[in-house]
Amino acid sequence: MGLIKQENVNSFNLPLYFANAKEVVGIVEGNGYFSIEKIQELNKYFSTMGTTTIDMQSFITSNVRAVVEGVMNEHFGHKIVDELFRSFPKKLDNCNFISDDEFCKDVDLFILLKRKVPS
From the centroid of its chain, how far is CA 24? Predict the structure, then answer.
């Protein structure tokens, strides 16, 4: 699209690691400051809601934006971020992982934590 310089794209690195449900439980329990009140896999919740691919694209886009928008503003400047996230759902349209149960099995979790009272 020519909106940013190629060297700026090449210098951007955002390493991500997606822990599975078992790892998240271990981290929370190992921390000791919280107890897990409820944990639910959201992909099962969405499939029972009859969520469409469009809804899932919006859901993924808004979640990705919430996580990376600040970093992207800092690196690329705020002018490009709106355009990036307007085109992001179109990119997702070409990805098969949204409907891949094996890929999504441990990705989306809802976890309700309760802060433990210090003794």
Answer: 15
Angle at which helices 53-76 and 42-49 cross, to 10°: 130
Query: Which is more confidently placed, 93 or 14?
Result: 14
pTM value is 0.56
N-term to C-term CA, the chain = 57
Q: What share of the chain is helix, strand, coil (3-state, %, to 5)?
A: 60, 15, 30
- Within 10 angstroms of residue 117's Cβ, the number of other Cβ atoms is 5
**DSSP designation for 14:** -
How many Cβ atoms sit within 10 Å of the Cβ of residue 56?
A: 19
